[in-house]
Amino acid sequence: MIPAPFEYAAPKTLEEALRLVERHGDEAKILAGGHSLLPLMKLRLAQPRYVIDIGRLRGMSYIREENGHIAIGALTTHAEIESSNLLRAKCPLLAETAAAIGDVQVRNRGTLGGNLAHADPAADYPAALLALDVEIVAASTAGARTIPVNEFFLDMLTTALRPGEILSQVRVTPLAAHTGAAYEKLPQPASGFAIVGVAARLRLGKGGKIEDAGVGVTGLGPKAFRAEAVEKALRGKKASDKIFTDAARYAAQGVEPLADLHASADYRREMASVYTRRALKRAFARAQGKA
Amino acid sequence: MKLSGQYSLPAPPAKVWALLTDPGRLAKLLPGCERLDPEGPDRFKAAVKFGIAAISGKYAGTLEFFEKKPPRSMRMRLSGKGLPGFVDGTGQVELAEKGGQTELRYSGEAQVGGMVAAVGQRMIEGAARKIVDEFFAAAAEELKKE
Amino acid sequence: MSAEIQVRVNGKSYESQIEPRLLLVHYLRDVLGLTGTHIGCETSLCGACTVLLDGKTVKSCTVLAVQASGSEITTIEGLSAQAPTNGNGLHPVQEAFWEKHGLQCGYCTPGMILASVELLRANPNPSQPEIRHALSGNLCRCTGYQHIVQAVEFAAKKMKSRKR
Amino acid sequence: MPAATRYLGKPLKRKEDPRLIQGLAHYVDDIVLPGLHHAAILRSPYAHAQIRSVDVSKAQSAPGVVLVLTGADLRGSIGAVPCAAQIPDMKAAPRPVLAHDRVRFVGEGVAVVVATDRYAARDAIDLIEVDYEPLTPVVDPEKALEKGSTVLYDGYKDNVAYRWELEGGDLKAAFKKADKVIKQRLVNQRLIPVAMETRGVVAEYKPGERQLTLWSSTQIPHLLRTQIASMLDVPEHSVRVITPEVGGGFGSKLNVYVEEALLGYLAMRLGKPVKWIETRRENMQGTTHGRDQIDDVEVAFKRDGTILGLRIHVIADLGAYYQLLTPLIPTLTGLMASGCYKIPAIRTEIIGVLTNKMSTDAYRGAGRPEATYLVERALDLVAAELKNDPADLRRKNFPKLEDFPYATPTGIIYDSANYPRSLDLALKMSDYKKLRQEQAKARKQGRCVGIGLSTYVEICAMGPSSAMPAGGWESATVRIEPSGMINILTGASPHGQGQETSFAQLGAEILGLEPDDVNVIHGDTSIVPYGIGTFGSRGTAVGGVAAYQSLMKLREKLAALAGFLLGEDPSKLVFADMKIFSKFQPKKSLAFGEVVAAAYSAKTLPPNMEPGLDATSFYEPKNFTFPFGAHVCVVEIDTETGDVRLIKYVAVDDCGNVLNPLLVEGQVHGGIVQAFGQAMLEEAVYDEQGQLITGELMDYAIPRASDMPWMETGRTVTPSPVNPLGVKGVGEAGTIGATPALANAVADALAPFGVRHVDMPFKRERIWKLMQKGSRRAK
Questions:
Q1: Would you tell me which CATH number, out of the four given (1.10.3720.10, 1.10.150.120, 1.10.287.370, 3.20.20.70), belongs to the domain C83-163?
Q2: D45–B112: do the CB atoms touch at under 8 Å?
C-alpha cells in the first residue's frame, strides 16, 4: 500500500502552518502523527494534493496547568497522555482513555489533535472529552477561538473546525473533589476501535447524591455524543446500582446506531446500556475513593 | 446496502417532480455533483465527487430514470465508478401530497464494491445517509425559494 | 517533488533525497537496505514493521520517512549495540527469544523483539498479563505467543542480573 | 529411533534462529537484483462480471512504466493454474493467469504493470480503465445449488463441481438398530490463512544460459518448478525455484499461483528481473482460503452410548476456480469421519460447489479439522442427549488397544494409538472432576461456564504415493564433505518448523557428531534432490525418514571403511564423540575426520568401495501415521455481552517419538491458537454481492497474545510402526484437536440456555442473541 503523490510542507511555526492551510484550502490535509490520515492515504481513499506536516511545530506538545485548567497541546501523543503524572492525579479519565487506544506503537505516534480532528465515529477520546466537557481551541490566521466539545463533533468524520483552522489545544477542567470517572469499552476484535465506548463522570454530594454527571458515548452512532438523557436521569438522585441500571437504559436515546459486520444496530444499542452502567459503577466506586 | 427514508418537502408534488427530473437543477443540489449531462431521454452522464472529509473520491457514471409516473413515482438507477470503488444502485421514489406539501419516500438498494466496500464498510451507510440528507435539505431550500 | 532528510539509523548518519510519500519502512528497506524490518499488514495492526524512533516503538509502515527526518532510528540490525551483550553480539531480548523458542517462521520476530525491548524498558519486571497486553500490537501466526511470553520473562530476569 | 539419545529427543535451541533474531535472514522481498523491476496487478472489484474492454493506454505512457499486459494479451501464452486433484466426473474450472473474458471473484487479476520501481507500478494501476458488465454474483453455496441460479461457467448446467461418496459398513442396518438419531447442521466457516509474510515472487531470466530462476515464498519448490515449466512451456531443467526464508504458510503456500507463472513470463519477456510482493489486501482476497463447509450430520446411537453410524452430507464451497488441491480437501473430511472411535458404519456425501469467491484449499489440517469437528460435536450432542459425561462417552467408543492397527469403515488403517491414556492424562492435568464441580457452583451463582473436551486422531505423514496426487515420498541427500562436515539436503522445505535443527540432531546422533557439524540445506531445486514439500505434517515423518535412510547408508559405508582400516568387524563399531571405535576394544579407534578423509583420498579403500561419501534416498512410507490426543478447556461467557473468554487450556498430544520437544511444543501452541482463531474470531465474510468485507486485518481478527490464557501441554508417546523413527508428525495436531474442544466448551456453557449447538465463530453478538432467546424462553 502506497500513498498517491502529494506536495509536502513542514512548517516550523504555527503561523506558517496556518498560512499554508489557508492558502491550500480543502486540497490540503494536515498531518500530525499520521495515524488517522496515513492509513486513508495508503488505501488511496484520501488523496490530498498538499500535506502540511505540523508534526515539527515546536511548543504544541505539552500537558500543563494554567488558569485553573489543564491545557494539552494538540501534538501531545496518546502515550504522553497515558503516562502523564499530572493527568493521572487530576484527570485520570483521560489517561485511562488514552491507554485504551490501539496499541503501544500507535499510542507512541498518534496525537490528541489528530485523533479529534479526524473525528472517527469509533475513536476513544471523544467519549472522555464529552464526559469531561472540555474546550477545544482552534487556531487560525484570524486568531484562536474555543469550541465547547459538545459542539465540536458534527457528524461522521466532520467537526466544527472551519477551513483554515488548526486544532491547537484541548482544555480540561481537573476533576472536582468527590468525583470519579471511568471509561469502559467494547473493542472491535480486529481493529481495537470502539464498538461502543462509554466515559462516565460522577460528582457526589452528601449521602451519595449525584450532584453532577457527564456521560460521553462513542462508537454507537455516526458521531460521539453526550448522553444527556442518562445524565438527566442521574442528577440529583442517590447513587445506587439500580439508578445506574435505570439511567443506562437511555444511553442510546435519540441515536440511530451504526451497523457493520462486527455489531448490528440492536446489539450496539444494548451494549451502549451495558457499558454505560459499567462505566457509571466504576466511576461511582472511584468517586467514593474505591477502585 | 439498503437505504430508505422519508422527507417532507415544502411544495406540492408537481413542483417536486419538476425539480427532481431537471438535470440542471439536480446537478446543483446533488452534493459534490460536478456535471450532469443528458445522454438520452431520462439518462444522464454524471461526474460526482462523493465522500466525507478526508475520504472522498471522484466517480463517473450514469443516472437513469424509468417507470416514471408523474408526479407520483419513479424508479432510478445509478451507477458510478472511481478509484475508491464503484456503486451500482436502484431505487424507488414516491411522492404524496399532504396539505400542499409533499411527503417523499424513498427506498433503494446499492452494491458498493472495491476499496470502499472492503475498508469503509463501517462508514458507507452513514455516508450514504448523510449524502441523501444533504440532498433533500438542499432540495427543500430550493423549493422554498420558488 | 522530492524532499531531503537526515536520519541516524543504528548509529550511522544518512542524508537522502526522497519522495515525500516514501514510507519509513520502504526507506529503511529499499533505500538503506536494512531488510530486517518486515511488512506484514500495511494497516498498522500487525507490528512486523516496528522500529525504535527516538527510542520509542512505532509502526514504520505508518510513518513517512520525511516525518522521521532529524530522528534517531534503531532497527533489529542495530539492536545489539543498545545493551550489554553476552559477548555473542546479541541483545538479551534476542538471546531470550532464541533460548525459549520464541519464534518459528521468524517474520514477526524483529518487531516482536523491539516491542519487548520497549516493554522491558518501561517495566523491567512485567507480569504475564502485562506482557500479553504490551505485545498486543504485534501479531504472530506461528508460536501461539506462549514461548514469546516466556522469552520476555526470561529476558527480564537476565537483564536484571546483568545490571547488578 | 536409535536407542542412544545424545541429541534426539532433546530440546536443542534452534540453529536457524541467530539469523532470524538479528534481521539477517532473507525473505523474498529482501532479495534485490541489479536492474530489478516491479510488477503490480490490477484486480477485479466485481465478484462476477464480463470484461467488455480494458484500456491501458494511459498506464502504458506513465513515468517508469515498462510494460502493461492484459488477460487478452496473455491468452494462449501461459497455461492455466494446475489442479492435481482428480475426482471422477469433476467439472473443469481452470483459472487463467489473468482474466480475459470474465472475472469470477473479487481480486482476480485483470492486468499487470511492470515499472522501474514499486511506487510507479502502483500508480499506473490507477490509470487502467476496465469496462465491466456486471453479472449476478453467486455467493451462497446453497443458493448456488438451487435451480435457476446463475451459472459460473458457460456450457455447464449448474454450479456443482463434483459429487463424491464414501460408504463403509452397513449404514441402513446401523440406523435401524439405533435407539436414537440426532441430526445437526454444522457450519465450518471460511477462513483466511494470514501467514504473516504475504506471498511474493522474484523472477530472473538469463537468456545466455536459458535459465529462469524464481524465488518464491512457497512450501513446495519442486512441484512448483515442474508446474511452472509446464505452464510456461519451457524445459523443466531450465527452471530453478528457490525458496528463501518463508514467513509462514499453513497450507496457503502449498500451491501454484498465477503470479508465479506470470512473473516468470515477464522476466523472460523483458529480460529483466521482476519482483511482485503481495499486499495484505491481495493476500486476503487472492491467496487460498480454508474450510468453508456446511455439514449435515446424523448420528445413530444406542441408549447405552454406543455410536452405531454416521451419515454426513457436506456442501463444500470451492470458490470460483481450482487451485492445486481444491477439490481434494473436502474428501479428507470423509476419510477421517470415524474420528478416534469404533463406528461400524459411515457414509459421507460431498457436493463441491463453485461460487464467485476465492478458491478454498489446504489450510492447517485441510479437511481433517472439519472431520474432527463434526465427529466431536456429534459425540457431545449424544452425550448431552443421554446426559452422559462426554469423557465417559468417548471412552466407551474408543477402539480397544488390541484392535490396532485399526481399520476404519472409511478405508484407512490407524497405525497405533492409546486413546484412553491420552484422555486420562488430559483429565488428570485439568483436574476434570474438580472443574465439573466448580462449574456446577458457578452456574448456581449465575455465571456461565463451559467445559469442553475433544479426543482426536488425525492423519499425517502424507503419505503413501498411492494416496497422493503427486506422490507421497520424500527425498534426502546426505553429503559428508572432505573436512568431515555434514550437509543434509532435504526435499521437504520447512518454513518455521525447525528442521534445520531437528535434522541436524538426527545427523549428529547417527554419526556421533555435534549438531553444529551438520548443516541442513533445503528449498533450492538446483541443489536439493526432488521433493514433494512441507505440508500435511510430513516434514519429519516422511522427509526426516528419508534423511535418516541416507544417514544410515553413509554410516554403513563409514563403518565398512573404518572396519577395513582398523581390522574390525564393521558391525562392532560405535559412532560417538566424533570418533569411530570398536565397541569391545575402544582403543581401536579412528577420528571421524580420518575415516572421511580416507574415503575422499581413496588410497586405501576396501575392494569395490567407491570413493566419496554421498547418499540419496527416496523414502516411500507404507502408510499414513495417525497422531492423536485429548484436549480440555474451560470458557466463561459474559452474560451481558456474550463475550467468550478462554480461561484454561490443557492439551495432551501423542505424535509418536519426538526429535526435539521444544519444536513439538511450539507447533502445538501455534496450532491451538489458530484453532482459537477459528472458534472465536475468524471468518472470511463476503457480502451478498461477493465483496470480501473482511479484506484487511482491520476487519479480519486473528488472535493476539492478550486473547490467550496459559496453555498446559502434556504428551504421551506411542511410536508409529510405519517408519523406523517411530515419528508421526505434529504440525496440525493443535488445530485439529482444539477447534472442537473450544466449540464443545461454548455449547456446554450455553446448555442452561437451552442451546444445543452454536456455529463458529463465537462472536459476541451471536452468543448474546442466543442467551437472550434462552433467557426469554426460561422465563
A1: 1.10.150.120
A2: no
